[in-house]
Write a structure and sequence with these properties.
The structure holds two protein chains of two kinds.
Chain A lengths: L9 H5 L2 H4 L9 E6 L2 E2 L16 E5 L6 E8 L13 E10 L8 E4 L14 E6 L8 H7 L18 H4 L1
Antiparallel strand pairs in A: 1-2, 1-3, 4-5, 4-7, 5-6
Chain B lengths: L26 H8 L11 H13 L2 H4 L5 H14 L6 H4 L3 H15 L14 H8 L29 H9 L17 H5 L17 H65 L21
């Protein structure tokens, strides 16, 4: 795992993203978000016209068997002085494999271009690592999502297939 | 000169308020400040007098804006000059200052309330003049309860409804502003002159008879509220702006330091590679080889 340095999160704290949107956390993945080859830096201001299409989101870290979820939101709607509509959801991409980019994932909520009406808004990209598919627990899952007892079930058998056996 | 008036030049602490600050100018001072542009004070009529005073005030926003609370001051001053002159009743506005002065002298001789202390016209303050001319009631109070009707014919204590809110704008900003011709407490004698008593000091204007006065009190209160809200919003906006700026600056600092480190590392690596050739030989195992024969 890369050494991220403790300082990486500081601009997020200063810009009140940690606070208004997120709790304090320790970054472990290097994520590059870029619009038209220009990388997004914390606190930099971009024109809405230059962010009208979805950006390239590269995940530098993890491995091909780990999956990530990306969320993009605006916490300053309709305006930063009175954000009574916070937060506005702009984009969700799930199942992004590690070391790849968002195009390899599933766009669950399609990208909505930023259109800040009042004042200067922050637009935040947040990356989560999805829980592993191994060690899944059906019972626990049912409890977590308050599903109760199942209503149906069926199963089949299978083993490794070789060319010889297929014939 | 009456000791009650004090010395107007001396900048007083603004914890007394700016009540009647405009009015506290003596006519001599008004003359001075009008300078060569005004005509002789005595022959001005009241309309002209007030207009020129207003424009003097309006021209002095920079001297008003001494302290941090200047914005409100400038606003009130500008509001003042924008409001233009008071709407004087016709019979008064055309009177010249001298005529009004004569009237006052006559009143003094006749009525002799004994509260007049100014022996000469020049030492009279604007406030006194207007008061005695019947243009204005005492300036202390935001919500004095004269009824709003047109009333008498210019006698003392007549209330000109339009005057009141204008006057009150002065009283709102209680700021610390040492100025050469402004700060001045209201002469307590004024109160004796006024026929009706009124609320003091505060802006809460609860049960006063007379609709117009109540409305003025409310207007004042709302204005203050609005100003405070605006100020708070402004502060928050400024804080957000600073946060944005600091976040970006910090981000850049971090990036710079990271890039510098990487630069150093790469340079050192380059040095090392010069000394020791470290390119690995091609791996023979990678070359193609037959691993299985055909299955027949």
């Amino acid at each position: 795992m890369e050494n991220m340095g403790e300082r990486v999160i500081e601009p997020l704290i200063m810009g009140r993203v940690v606070g208004d949107v997120l709790d304090f956390f320790t970054p472990t993945i290097k994520m590059n978000v870029s619009y038209n080859k220009k990388q997004v830096s914390n606190g930099h201001e971009l024109f809405p016209s230059s962010v009208s299409s979805k950006p390239r989101v590269e995940i530098h870290g993890g491995d091909l068997r780990s999956f990530f979820t990306l969320v993009m939101i605006d916490p300053d709607v309709p305006g930063p002085s009175d954000p009574f509509l916070k937060e506005h959801l702009h984009w969700i991409v799930t199942n992004i494999p590690g070391t790849t980019d968002a195009t390899f994932g599933k766009e669950v909520v399609s990208y909505e271009l930023p259109r800040p009406s009042i004042g200067i808004h922050r637009f935040v990209f947040v990356l989560f690592k999805q829980k592993q598919r191994h060690h899944f627990n059906t019972r626990k899952f049912a409890i977590e999502y308050d599903l109760g007892l199942p209503v149906a079930a069926v199963f089949f058998n299978a083993q490794r297939e070789t060319a010889a056996r297929r014939r | 000169m009456d000791s009650q008036r004090g010395v107007v030049e001396e900048p007083r602490s603004q914890s007394l308020n700016r009540q009647g600050s405009l009015y506290s100018l003596t006519l001599d001072e008004v003359q001075t400040h009008l300078g060569s542009s005004g005509k002789a004070l005595g022959s001005m009529n009241l309309d002209e007098l007030l207009k020129s005073v207003c424009s003097v005030e309006g021209n002095q926003p920079s001297s008003m804006a001494v302290n941090g609370a200047s914005a409100a001051a400038v606003a009130t001053q500008e509001g003042l000059s924008r409001q233009g002159s008071l709407t004087l009743p016709r019979d008064l506005s055309k009177k010249t200052v001298e005529e009004v002065w004569k009237d006052i002298q006559q009143d003094k001789n006749g009525g002799g309330s004994g509260a007049h202390k100014q022996p000469t016209l020049g030492e009279m303050t604007l406030e006194d003049l207007l008061l005695k001319a019947g243009v204005v009631t005492e300036t202390v109070v935001p919500g004095s309860n004269h009824d709003g009707g047109p009333g008498g014919s210019g006698g003392i204590g007549q209330n000109i409804a339009q005057v009141a809110p204008w006057v009150q704008y002065h009283q709102l900003p209680s700021m610390q502003q040492p100025q050469s011709f402004m700060p001045y407490p209201v002469n307590p004698d004024m109160q004796a002159m006024v026929s009706q008593s009124s609320l003091m000091g505060g802006l809460s204007d609860t049960q006063t008879p007379g609709r117009k006065r109540v409305a003025s009190g409310e207007v004042v209160e709302k204005t203050v509220e609005r100003k405070q809200k605006r100020m708070i919003k402004n502060r928050e906006s400024a804080a957000r702006s600073r946060a944005r700026k600091q976040a970006y600056t910090h981000e850049l600092e971090i990036k710079v330091s990271r890039l510098e480190e990487e630069n150093e590392r790469l340079k050192r690596q380059k040095e090392v590679e010069k000394i020791l050739p470290s390119a690995p030989p091609p791996d023979p195992k990678r070359q193609l080889r037959r691993t299985s024969s055909a299955p027949f």
